[in-house]
């Protein structure tokens, strides 16, 4: 059995790992990259910008973690040696994700001709001319544009502008595979789709819920705030099927005392519901709050609607039913509800453990219900905090990289640019790929990310991507999505600058709705180009008669002027490069109970409990500590007993029931596919299984939440058997 009970998150080993990574890339280069006035390239928690590369908006220094260093280690690499491209694509496809990441930076445009077996370097002019020609000759309705969350606001705005001027609203981003359920669930309850708090609010919270997230691996800087909450007498309540060692105890490198004592206690209480049973647990917590009489009746009466049907629905469900579904006792649930009842300032933070379900929107609505029940939205030091992934994924959505724009925003765009845009509803990410699989997509423009690896059902992803006749990628490095799912069509890969290499300043938005300014300006590879420059060059070639001067609008100051004039709340963006004044987007942080719904009130929403098969194993895909999104930095997970990439984590009772031993080869089967893995005992509830993303994508089907269109990466019915 793998014993993780003594594992502590962070600590000296992480410090040494960070130092080793810095030494590998060069101390001078690393210091320049980490201290320059550029936003952190890792998670959307957000550091850097004009406060300094290792400083957050509260002027806390040093604000840096190993995720920041890992991201820099990728960007500081030299260009991929030209000899690599003498190898066939099938040979490159044999490399692991980590091996692909270590090849180096992409330094020249690459082209795979239709049916060819390898890439060939091209000049920039030839690459841009050919890409523009292929797109111009393609029916825009048979295309889609997809962006990751790494790009700047400026590049993202030009990206969606080019797509709509070209003639398609099939514009989407990676949020459809992560937090779109959050946006939808918050829209129905509070009328807005982002965090209601700012970073400073965490400094005064006396209770922080961490639900369906593992920030010890994915948002290490957030752990610092959790530790501080505990040290000032507050509570941190973790709700997660897996007992993650880094959420139990974490040695914060910034804190000498935390390091000396072998780690700080993080979770004051830890509930482990069965995978997929979150709604039952959240309803149970609400039921216990009502039983204990700690609801805020005055807030509810003055600032909410829908309370009576919500309460009637909660009270109609028995405790026996709740216990049976989530696997937790009434006593455990009531204990946590009592802690919540004592709280004056509670923050609810959650991750993709809540959104990656076919009922992900309802999960988020259930969280909002619980927060509203005690008036924890609309005041200082309390509220809602979705833990976003990539550094600018929220900003990409704010500036319009999505298939449906608000009518007033679309009209302002048309007025500013003097053009008309298509009116039909665009397709979400999964819908675009479904259409591609059906042979109805001829071209795709993919800016950043790894869409192939991010898509559930790897066989489906390969078929869908392979059926697209022309694929244009904009990327800093090669990844597995550039060598898998290529089909027989043409593939163009263009090398782009990293954030701190941009020719002009750019902006990014954190999960706290805070817009930062990145200076850029570092030169590492002279042959790479900014995304906005590439998009401007494509635009002027594809649409030579357009009223939009794409050449001029590849300049970031002009783009910011346009965003400020078009996107509500972004007015201060117009002079940010002159004033150097970073800002919170207007009307998002909620320190007063003023909701953006049609009636100005928060809405309680009835959240039915999803059905679950009796005795069914339910699998969730997870990330490792040495991983960021689909990027693999390390092959083993130091927070889960050095488990490898094909570990299949099961509870001790499920291991015994199936006569399995640690290290034994197993077959995991679902309706989507089969994965071979290694049985590994972990602290999980009976009936719950975990395996690593993206390797376990072979098991995940393409069914999506009907409202958010988000796939169910974290509730997959499986069987596990000996080989």
From TrEMBL:
Residues 105-460 form the Molybdopterin oxidoreductase domain. One of its GO terms (cellular component) is membrane. Gene3D superfamilies: 2.40.40.20, 3.40.50.740, Dimethylsulfoxide Reductase, domain 2. Pfam families: Molybdopterin (PF00384), Molydop_binding (PF01568). One of its GO terms (biological process) is cellular respiration. GO terms for molecular function: 4 iron, 4 sulfur cluster binding; formate dehydrogenase (NAD+) activity; molybdenum ion binding; molybdopterin cofactor binding. Residues 617-717 form the Molybdopterin dinucleotide-binding domain. Keywords: Iron, Iron-sulfur, Metal-binding. Signal peptide: none annotated. It comes from the Bacteria. This is Oxidoreductase alpha (Molybdopterin) subunit. It comes from Devosia lucknowensis.
């Amino acid at each position: 059995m793998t014993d993780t009970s003594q594992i502590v998150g962070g600590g000296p080993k992480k410090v040494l790992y960070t130092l080793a990574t810095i030494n590998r890339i060069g101390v001078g280069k690393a210091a320049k990259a980490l201290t320059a006035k550029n936003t952190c390239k890792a998670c959307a928690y957000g550091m850097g910008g004009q406060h300094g590369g290792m400083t957050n908006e509260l002027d806390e220094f040093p604000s840096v973690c190993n995720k920041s260093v890992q991201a820099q280690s990728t960007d500081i690499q030299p260009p991929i040696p030209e000899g690599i491209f003498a190898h066939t694509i099938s040979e490159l496809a044999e490399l692991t994700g980590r091996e692909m990441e270590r090849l180096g930076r992409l330094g020249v445009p690459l082209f795979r001709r239709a049916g060819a077996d390898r890439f060939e370097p091209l000049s920039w002019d030839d690459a841009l001319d050919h890409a523009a020609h292929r797109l111009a000759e393609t029916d825009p309705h048979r295309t889609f544009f997809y962006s990751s969350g790494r790009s700047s606001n400026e590049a993202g705005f030009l990206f969606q502008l080019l797509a709509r001027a070209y003639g398609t609203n099939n514009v989407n981003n990676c949020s459809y595979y992560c937090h779109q359920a959050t946006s939808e669930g918050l829209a129905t309850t509070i009328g807005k789709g982002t965090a209601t708090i700012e970073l400073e609010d965490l400094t005064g919270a006396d209770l922080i819920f961490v639900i369906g997230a593992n920030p010890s691996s994915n948002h290490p800087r957030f752990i610092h705030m959790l530790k501080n909450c505990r040290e000032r007498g507050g509570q941190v309540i973790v709700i997660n099927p897996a007992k993650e060692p880094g959420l139990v105890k974490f040695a914060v490198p910034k804190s000498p005392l935390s390091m000396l004592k072998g780690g700080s206690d993080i979770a004051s209480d830890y509930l482990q519901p069965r995978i997929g049973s979150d709604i039952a647990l959240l309803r149970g917590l609400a039921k216990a709050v009502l039983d204990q009489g700690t609801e805020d009746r005055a807030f509810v009466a003055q600032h909410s609607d829908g309370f009576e049907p919500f309460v009637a629905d909660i009270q109609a469900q028995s405790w026996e039913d709740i216990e049976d579904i989530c696997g937790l006792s009434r006593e455990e649930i009531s204990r946590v509800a009592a802690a919540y009842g004592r709280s004056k300032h509670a923050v609810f933070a959650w991750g993709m453990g809540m959104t990656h379900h076919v009922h992900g929107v309802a999960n988020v609505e259930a969280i909002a219900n619980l927060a509203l029940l005690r008036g924890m939205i609309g005041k200082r030091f309390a509220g809602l905090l979705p833990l976003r992934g990539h550094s600018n994924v929220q900003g990409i959505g704010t500036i319009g990289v999505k298939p449906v724009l608000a009518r007033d925003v679309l009209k302002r765009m048309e007025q500013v640019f003097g053009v008309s845009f298509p009116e039909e509803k665009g397709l979400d990410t999964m819908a675009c790929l479904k259409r591609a699989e059906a042979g109805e997509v001829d071209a795709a423009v993919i800016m950043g990310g790894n869409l192939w690896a991010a898509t559930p059902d790897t066989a489906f992803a390969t078929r869908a991507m392979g059926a697209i006749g022309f694929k244009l990628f904009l990327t800093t490095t090669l990844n597995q999505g550039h060598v898998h799912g290529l089909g027989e069509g043409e593939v163009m890969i263009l090398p782009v600058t990293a954030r701190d290499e941009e020719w002009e300043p750019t902006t990014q938005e954190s999960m706290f709705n805070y817009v930062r300014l990145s200076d850029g300006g570092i030169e590492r590879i002279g042959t790479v180009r900014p995304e906005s420059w590439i998009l401007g060059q494509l635009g002027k070639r594809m649409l030579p008669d357009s009223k939009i001067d794409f050449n001029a609008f590849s300049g970031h100051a002009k783009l910011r002027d346009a965003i400020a004039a078009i996107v509500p709340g972004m007015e201060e963006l117009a002079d940010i490069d002159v004033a150097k004044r970073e800002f919170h987007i207007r009307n998002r942080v909620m320190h007063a109970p003023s909701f953006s719904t049609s009636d100005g009130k928060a809405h309680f929403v009835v959240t039915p409990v999803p059905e679950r098969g009796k005795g069914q194993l339910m699998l969730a895909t997870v990330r490792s500590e040495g991983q960021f999104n689909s990027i693999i930095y390390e092959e083993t997970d130091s927070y889960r007993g050095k488990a490898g990439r094909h570990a299949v984590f099961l509870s001790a009772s499920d291991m015994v029931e199936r006569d399995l031993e640690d290290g034994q080869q197993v077959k995991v089967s679902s309706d989507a596919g089969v994965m071979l893995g290694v049985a590994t005992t972990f602290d999980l509830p009976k009936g719950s299984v975990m395996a690593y993303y993206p390797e376990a994508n072979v098991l995940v089907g393409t069914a999506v939440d009907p409202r958010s269109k988000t796939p169910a990466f974290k509730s997959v019915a499986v069987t596990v058997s000996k080989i």
